[in-house]
Amino acid sequence: MNWGNYLFGFQGRINRAKIWLFVLIAIVVYIVYFTAVAVVFGGSIVAMVKGGPAGMMAGGATIGAAALASILLYLIVLYCGIAVSVKRLHDRNKSAWWIVVFIVIPIVLSWINLATMLSAMNAGANAAAPNPMMSLVGVASLILSIWGFVELYCLRGTEGPNAYGPDPLAGESAA
Fold first, then answer.
1. Are the beta carbons of 84 and 151 closer than 8 angstroms?
2. Residue 175 — very low, low, confident or very high, per pLDDT cuts 50/70/90?
3. Range 20-51 burial, b when 16+ CB lie within 10 A, else e
4. Per the CB 3.0–4.6 Å rule, which of 1, 73, 162, 170 could disulfide with 93?
5. If we measure between CA atoms, which residue out of 66, 69, 96 comes closest to residue 82?
6. What average pLDDT does this structure show over 131-160?
């Protein structure tokens, strides 16, 4: 397998096993990363809590470095996740624009829902009286997310070649 194209390329097709492999890789990367952060920066957090003003300054700098590294790792994993998802959409004979339907729209709808709830809480609104419109927004986000999950992770790709390349399973069944 060409790892560069698998993680960073947007051309071609991948099967379900390869998108699940990416999920496993991302989980392992995050476990290793956050374990390393805890080992490397854990002492700084303790110094920050117990060290008074000097500890706050020393700990704050290392926490900032850890935050920057976390953001960088997140952006790399996000880019790779989008690349892998696009290739999986290609296997389903769908264009990359379906990312908007399956990922972007549910995220935006969830942010709108969250912002509305926080605004209502800030205004002192009764939490027992949900906003029916925001409930519909939440349901729409959930439906799109489930549809995207089924399309990307559960359904078989198109059999045989399609507009995006040869069937990734065709070579496996012949071998």
1. no
2. very low
3. eebeebeeeeeeebeeebeeebeebbebbeee
4. 162
5. 96
6. 93
What DSSP state is assigned to residue 2? -
* pLDDT for 72 beyond 60: yes
Measure the CA–CA gap between 142 and 152, rounded to whole angstroms.
15
Cα 85 to Cα 171: distance, rounded to the nearest angstrom: 21
Residue 44 tokens read as 């700084």
Each residue of 146-171: pLDDT tens digit? 999 999 999 999 999 999 999 999 87
> Rounded to 5 degrees, what angle do the CA atoms 172, 174, 175 make?
65
The pair phi, psi for residue 10, each rounded to 5°, is -115, 5
Q: Is the pLDDT of residue 125 over 70?
A: no
Q: What is the CA radius of gyration of the chain?
A: 22
